[in-house]
Write a structure and sequence with these properties.
The protein is mainly alpha-helical. It contains 5 helices and 3 strands. It has a 3-stranded antiparallel β-sheet. A hairpin with a 2-residue loop joins strand 2 (32-35) and strand 3.
Length: 177
């Protein structure tokens, strides 16, 4: 039966730092709820169903305190099998990803090689026909004058006026320019 414990109690039970318990709740590894400003963490029963409860034993090989060691060992074996299966699945997916990446890289190399061949053929054809090579710089484009109707009101009034005759802006009036 699950029970709710404070952050410090959960850290003591799990034998980790309270900040680690907080991170586990943030990552979704443990369920947590806020009661006022306090965070409570759900702890499962002692039958080994809590996935993050480590099996502790000292150097003489004595069983871990507070539970059935066989049940804890079975739970850890099941957890290890689950993690191993997840790792194998991730390795297969990453292998497929890398194979696809290598294919894309080879395709890009082929495309670049084809582009280089086409460029050299184009240059050879231009030399045979003695056409001037296209310039690398685009022609200069003069931007059209802005439509006065689209300008803000102050610019509409002052456009084309000498500086002396146009109205001064607020900052010119304030700072005396």
């Amino acid at each position: 039966m699950p029970r709710w414990a404070t952050l410090k109690e959960a850290a003591t039970v799990l034998q980790v730092h309270p900040r680690t318990v907080q991170r586990m709740v943030d990552r979704g590894e443990l369920r947590g709820r806020h009661v006022g400003r306090r965070l409570e963490v759900e702890l499962k029963d002692d039958a080994g169903t809590q996935s993050t409860t480590p099996l502790q034993s000292d150097t003489q090989g004595q069983d871990a305190p507070g539970g059935d060691s066989a049940a804890q060992l079975d739970a850890l074996r099941m957890q290890l099998a689950s993690v191993t299966a997840e790792r194998d699945k991730a390795e297969q997916q990453s292998g497929a990803y890398w194979q696809e990446l290598v294919k894309l890289h080879d395709t890009m190399r082929e495309i670049n090689a084809n582009m280089a061949r086409m460029q050299s053929r184009l240059e050879a054809a231009e030399q045979r026909l003695s056409l001037p090579a296209p310039s690398q710089q685009p022609p200069a484009v003069v931007p059209p004058a802005p439509d006065p109707a689209l300008l803000p009101p102050m610019q509409r009034v002052t456009q084309g006026m000498p500086r002396r005759t146009r109205p001064r802006t607020w900052w010119e009036r304030l700072f005396g320019k």
